[in-house]
């Protein structure tokens, strides 16, 4: 035996240490003590890992539940890694810090225990720990936490604002007929000639990467990554494509049915049909349910969960349902209509007659009452919802109770012009619902515009707001999201340090700007004043560029400003230099920004041409000839008759 106090060795039958008088304990007892300590430490590690809720739910539990095949595991892991990367700031605060503190506490406790009971000889230690293994689940979660601590700081150092869904030059701009042929036109100017003759009822994914249309034979056709997918689906209605274009829902066997509108006391008709989900990657279709109300479907961000309204009968009764991964639908309840839903139905947002609720698991939280019109904004994973009630703005986060964020209606989240967004209108008997999918990872640390008051607000980390600007008639945000300029008509003002209430700098006094344009870093600014004069502003100094300017636009890098003089001459100024004419137009000119690019649309000689501006060059993106409106109206009437049938 070994004395636990001084380390001296004795025979097994000795009871007390002759050196220090400490009662001696058998090696087996020490081993048991150490084993108990190890088990206790292991339990603490496991509990600590379980407290890292974001890691557990986003990486371990979600992947384990979703994984039915190896391919699904790979897809789920890829999606979750992408989500972790997109929500890096939240992960740093909610996961890394907690994991770091917990591991430090466990390590400190373990070291204290080990110091108290450790033997003096290495061989004894080896004997007591031999053959023991770590719990694989604890090890896996611990490794996840460690990897997050390693990689998150590196991700956070990337420049630019990557916290929202973006469009790119590779998105589909339109599917159009030209010279008797059908083309898919991309924002970068690429064209793909299609075998079909018509592309009716076009529906796009939120990021613009996928478009679905109905050809001349009433077959649904999908265009993804420049490739055509013939689905073999005919006579479909109510088509909806998921945000990133991985799934599509549609209705078949549609018919009109009568029901009693109790609000107005008359018999009305509604369209119902069979709801189906189509996996665009696998090119497979799954029937969800029959007799579903057409246009009632809403999709989760990953496109794998669909919610809808069904079971209308002779009264106004109906029920809300949802289905995850095409599985057997689950009923939410009578007169409950889901208007937004998170992946795997983790958060469910719905109306109950004239009230608004959110549900997480079995917990139901009432958010608002007496609503006839619901307008909400969702973040990327539908874990946050902003909504208006009685001229105020509220938020619910992860299914919790509402919190007031502003005494005004924050009607728009301010993003760069390459941001993707989607708006879905849902008509109900008791009121209308407008859902805006913003694609931002979180509403924290974002700018918002209040349309009714022309004010700009900043959302702090605790979902409280700071008012940064008043009378902000026009505004522009930097690419990194860290600074803002706005036009209050009298002055041009730059704002930084949003979280500290905003630090303001006046860039131009008495500008009296009617329009304002700024580049990505807010260094080059142009304005058009009330006298239609174009001015260039840099470092607080203004320089007149041109007269009789009706509109302008600036290139993303700020090097070129394109503008229209007398509504017919397209001109440019490079770095605030003298006016240069590009071309004169016998028609109409329109300047715009799409996907972060400067573009000009010219209507001339019965033809509309869209150009991408690249320095002094005009790259043709899109050409469309005038429509024969008689044929157009005739086709529209035929389509309407088909729909009513």
In short:
By secondary structure, the chain is an alpha+beta fold. It has 7 helices and 45 strands. Helix content is 20%, strand content 42%.
What this model shows, in words?
- This protein is an alpha+beta fold.
- The protein has seven helices and 45 strands.
- Strands 23-22-21-20-26-25 form a six-stranded mixed β-sheet, with no helix packed on it.
- Strand 31 and strand 32 (492-496) form a beta hairpin.
- The termini are far apart.
- The model is unreliable at 27-31, 63-70, 83-95 and 116-159 (pLDDT under 50).
Explain the layout of strands and helices:
Elements: H1 27-51, H2 53-66, H3 70-86, H4 88-117, H5 122-129, H6 136-156, E1 172-178, E2 181-186, E3 191-194, E4 200-204, E5 210-214, E6 219-224, E7 227-234, E8 237-241, E9 247-261, E10 266-279, E11 284-293, E12 298-299, E13 305-310, E14 319-324, E15 330-334, E16 336-341, E17 348-352, E18 355-360, E19 363-368, E20 373-378, E21 384-389, E22 392-397, E23 403-406, E24 412-413, E25 422-427, E26 432-437, E27 447-450, E28 455-459, E29 465-469, E30 474-477, E31 484-487, E32 492-496, E33 503-508, E34 513-518, E35 525-529, E36 534-538, E37 541-546, E38 549-554, E39 560-565, E40 569-574, E41 580-584, E42 588-594, E43 597-604, E44 607-614, E45 617-625, H7 629-644
Parallel strand pairs: 20-26
Antiparallel strand pairs: 1-2, 2-3, 4-5, 5-6, 6-7, 8-9, 9-10, 10-11, 12-13, 13-14, 14-15, 16-17, 17-18, 18-19, 20-21, 21-22, 22-23, 24-27, 25-26, 27-28, 28-29, 30-31, 31-32, 32-33, 34-35, 35-36, 36-37, 38-39, 39-40, 40-41, 42-43, 43-44, 44-45
């Amino acid at each position: 035996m070994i004395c636990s106090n001084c380390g001296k060795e004795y025979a097994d039958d000795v009871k007390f240490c002759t050196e220090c008088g400490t009662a001696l304990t058998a090696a087996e007892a020490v081993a048991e003590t150490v084993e108990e300590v190890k088990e206790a430490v292991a339990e603490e590690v496991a509990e600590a890992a379980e407290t890292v809720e974001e890691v557990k739910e986003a990486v371990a539990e979600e992947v384990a539940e979703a994984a039915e095949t190896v391919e699904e595991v790979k897809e789920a892991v890829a999606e979750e890694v992408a989500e972790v990367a997109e929500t890096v700031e939240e992960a740093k605060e909610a996961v890394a810090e907690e994991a770091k503190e917990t591991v430090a506490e466990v390590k400190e406790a373990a070291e204290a225990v080990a110091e108290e009971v450790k033997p003096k000889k290495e061989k004894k230690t080896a004997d007591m720990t031999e053959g023991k293994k770590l719990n694989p689940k604890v090890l896996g979660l611990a490794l996840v936490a460690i990897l997050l601590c390693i990689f998150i700081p590196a991700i956070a150092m990337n420049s630019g604002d990557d916290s929202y869904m973006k469009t790119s030059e590779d998105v589909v701009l339109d599917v159009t007929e030209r010279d008797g042929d059908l083309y898919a036109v991309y924002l970068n100017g690429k064209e793909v000639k299609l075998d079909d003759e018509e592309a009716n009822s076009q529906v796009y994914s939120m990021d613009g990467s996928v478009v679905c249309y109905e050809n001349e034979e009433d077959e649904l056709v999908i265009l993804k990554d420049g490739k055509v997918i013939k689905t073999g689906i005919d006579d479909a209605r109510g088509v909806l494509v998921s945000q990133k274009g991985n799934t599509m829902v549609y209705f078949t066997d549609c018919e009109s049915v009568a029901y009693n509108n109790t609000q107005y006391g008359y018999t009305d008709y509604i369209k119902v049909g069979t709801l189906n989900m189509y996996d665009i990657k696998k090119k497979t279709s799954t029937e969800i349910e029959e007799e579903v109300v057409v246009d009632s479907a809403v999709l989760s961000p990953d496109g794998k969960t669909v919610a809808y309204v069904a079971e209308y009968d002779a009264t106004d009764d109906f029920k809300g349902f949802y289905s995850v991964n095409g599985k057997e639908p689950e009923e939410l309840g009578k007169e409950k209509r889901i208007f937004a839903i998170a992946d795997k139905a983790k958060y469910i947002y719905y109306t109950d007659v004239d009230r608004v609720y959110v549900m997480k698991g079995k917990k139901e939280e009432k958010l608002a009452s007496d609503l006839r019109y619901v307008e909400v904004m969702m973040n990327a994973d539908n874990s946050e919802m902003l909504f208006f009630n009685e001229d105020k703005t509220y938020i619910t986060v992860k299914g919790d109770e509402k919190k007031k964020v502003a005494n005004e209606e924050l009607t728009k989240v301010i993003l760069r012009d390459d941001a993707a967004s989607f708006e879905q209108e849902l008509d109900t008997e008791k009121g209308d619902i407008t859902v805006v999918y913003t694609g931002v990872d979180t509403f924290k640390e974002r700018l918002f515009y209040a349309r009714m008051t022309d004010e700009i607000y900043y959302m702090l980390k605790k979902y409280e707001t700071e008012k940064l600007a008043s009378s902000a008639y026009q505004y522009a945000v930097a690419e990194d999201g860290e600074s803002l300029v706005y036009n209050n008509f009298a002055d041009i003002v730059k704002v930084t340090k949003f979280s500290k209430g905003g630090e303001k700098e006046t860039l131009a006094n008495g500008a009296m700007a009617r329009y304002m344009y700024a580049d990505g870093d807010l260094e080059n600014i142009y304005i058009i004043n009330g006298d239609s004069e174009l001015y260039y502003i840099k470092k607080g100094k203004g320089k007149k560029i041109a007269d009789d300017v009706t509109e302008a636009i600036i290139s993303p890098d700020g090097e070129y400003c394109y503008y229209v003089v007398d509504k017919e001459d397209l001109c440019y100024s490079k770095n605030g230099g003298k006016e240069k004419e590009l071309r004169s137009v016998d028609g109409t000119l329109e300047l715009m920004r799409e996907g972060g690019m400067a573009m000009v649309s010219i209507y001339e000689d019965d033809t509309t041409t869209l150009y991408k501006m690249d320095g002094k060059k005009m790259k043709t993106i899109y050409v469309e000839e005038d429509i024969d409106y008689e044929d157009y109206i005739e086709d529209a009437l035929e389509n309407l008759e088909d729909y009513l049938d």
